[in-house]
Design brief:
This protein has 396 residues and is mostly helical. The protein contains 18 helices and no strands. Helix 8 crosses helix 15. The radius of gyration is 20 Å and the shape is globular.
Length: 396
């Protein structure tokens, strides 16, 4: 294991700034969620046309992780993050002044590209933190990411309903400018570890996957669990309408228990610091399996949906936080690229899950969704169980 020999550590003030940064950047692509209908009405867009907005935002987010996040190993992470915060600020202005649907879609795509800087912050935290506190601090900032997603949806909806959807983006611009100023002031520059060209940097992603079996296993486990996660959220609204006759408002409330990861992130990080990632990852997989057993009872009461959402999100966050906290410590020279590989697997799993869940629901109903998700979670458990412990890996 290659690690930094002299991590400077994170003060409380610096941790707060990094938490606020990931919170703000994570919120940017979720402001649109509650206001899409207002945007569609203003531009006369059909549901299919306005549906490209969240789609392009997610495409942009994945592209930003794939093609920009690896640069964190080549250039000063502070400069990279500041450039991408500035990009989010510019896109906020483009949103607020958009005069056509085409401009809106352009802004959505590139807001996603710049917003993925949230995944630049995790390697930065790992680089600045003392090794004994890495898990706790990664968990802390990742809880900011989850809260940022919730904040974006709630604040965007509230401001849009009260002052119009454009006002929400002017408010976002103000928030980003404040974050930019604090980031410049409080966050230190950090030395890059790689001198590879951009092309070589991108090619090295495959090399890292070959070189580190723990990266392969953790990424595959997270991707398989991501299928289970994506299946639920892609089919939730249809299931709630079919089984319980409930609409968007009631379905949206499921996001509240579905935010359990906010509460579990930091304790899981501390657990990783003390005992390594395996116990927390096992707990997370078991929670995902339990979630779908509970979801199987969804036809009887909405309460089972809420309980299952709590278990599902808690399980996903337990595995992702513990895996990220561990993986960002295995090679100090490649933290950003390692995080890129891991997050792309997780993101890809979510996307595959949306497809698998939709097909299962169409052909076999809600129980088919539960059965297919359980199968993927069981594969994750099998892959995890076959993996040697970190201690065994280090001794070989």
């Amino acid at each position: 294991m290659n690690s930094s020999a002299a991590a400077p550590g994170l003060s409380t003030g610096l941790t707060i700034v990094l938490f606020a940064t990931i919170f703000s950047c994570a919120s940017t692509i979720h402001y649109q969620t509650p206001m899409i209908a207002l945007m569609a009405a203003e531009f006369g867009a059909s549901p299919a046309q306005i549906g490209w907005l969240p789609t392009l935002a997610q495409v942009g987010f994945a592209s930003g992780i794939a093609f920009l996040t690896p640069l964190g190993d080549r250039i000063d992470k502070k400069k990279l993050i500041l450039a991408r915060i500035a990009g989010c600020a510019v896109m906020s202005v483009v949103f607020a002044t958009a005069d056509s649907l085409a401009v809106l879609l352009f802004a959505g795509l590139f807001m996603g590209v710049f917003a993925s800087t949230s995944q630049d912050i995790v390697p930065l935290v790992a680089q600045l933190a003392h090794p004994a506190e890495r898990g706790k601090l990664v968990g802390t900032v990742l809880s900011g990411l989850m809260l940022g997603i919730l904040f974006g949806r709630l604040a965007g909806g509230f401001i849009a309903a009260s002052f119009g959807w454009r006002a929400a983006y002017w408010a976002l611009l103000c928030l980003l400018l404040v974050i930019f100023a604090f980031f410049v002031w409080r966050v230190p520059s950090v030395k890059s570890h790689s001198t590879l060209s951009y092309v070589a940097l991108m090619r090295s992603l495959a090399t890292l996957v070959r070189e580190y079996p723990e990266l392969r296993r953790a990424s595959l486990v997270q991707g398989l669990l991501g299928v289970a996660y994506g299946s639920f959220w892609a089919t939730l609204a249809l299931m709630m309408a079919d089984l319980h006759g409930l609409g968007a408002a009631a379905t949206g409330l499921i996001a509240i228990p579905g935010a359990a990861g906010v509460l579990i992130a930091q304790p899981v990080g501390r657990w990783v610091d003390r005992r390594g990632p395996r116990p927390a990852v096992l707990l997370g997989i078991v929670l995902v399996l339990a979630a779908y057993l509970v979801f199987g009872l969804a036809a009887f009461a909405v309460a089972f949906v809420a309980i299952g959402a709590l278990l599902l999100d808690g399980g996903i966050r337990a595995t992702s936080v513990s895996n990220q906290a561990y993986l960002t410590g295995i090679d100090a020279q490649a933290r950003s690229r390692i995080n890129t590989v891991f997050i792309l697997h997780m993101f890809g799993g979510n996307a595959i899950g949306a497809f698998v869940g939709s097909v299962a629901l169409s052909n076999g109903g809600w129980l088919a969704v539960c059965a297919s998700a359980l199968a993927f979670a069981a594969m994750a458990l099998y892959l995890f169980w076959r993996a040697p412990s970190a201690a065994t890996q280090r001794s070989n």
